[in-house]
Amino acid sequence: MSHRLSGRPLHSDRHELHGITVVLDTQGAGTYVGRFDSQDERGVHLFDVGVYDPAQGTRDNYVRRSVKFGIRVDRPELTIESTEVARITPLGQIEL
Amino acid sequence: MPYNPALVAPMREEMVRMGAHELTTVAEVDAALGDPKGSILVFVNSVCGCAAGNARPALRLALEHSVKPQQVVTVFAGQDLEATSRARQFFAEYQPSSPSMALLRDGEVVHFVHRHMIEGRSPQLIAGELTQAFDKFFGVAV
User: What element of type H or E holds A80?
Assistant: First the structure.
């Protein structure tokens, strides 16, 4: 009897980060945490995006809080121009 | 909008096969989580193949461990909307994500596995981290 419904991505034709929650830092002061969907000529498309607000504390504390408590979604989706992207890091790779 | 029930039925059955009690109504959630005694794992199921496709087999593997929660219950995000919303009130400090897992001991959240802790990881790796949490929070003190 097979128990294996799962264990295999349904979207194997997509970008390698598709479906992965990432921290996206921009060339400026912007930091976004969201689920990577795709990248095309318009930029990087994220879903369920948390937007770092410097008034609420440091960027590192914001990311650490997202790791521990999850992402407070500020925008259901967001596109960041590729030229603005400085670094993309899977949230799951960030240690507290 | 919920998916076709026929599509998600195998995902529900996968949970039930491993011994999880499915909660589909607010009343069922309250009955299961309202009494804060003991240890319980709440699995928030999801149709997402990227993450839930590894989370379900990971939990099945983890439940083969000698130390495990007394109860395993599951709600289905995007399907059983009211039940899922109610369950999330029991771990409201944590932002909603699915799939995810909350480990509760006597009503207190002692460990939480977010979706981002599941994505891109093998079932074996996720299961290993889960069993560490089982040992830490549900093991018998000697």
Answer: strand A75-80
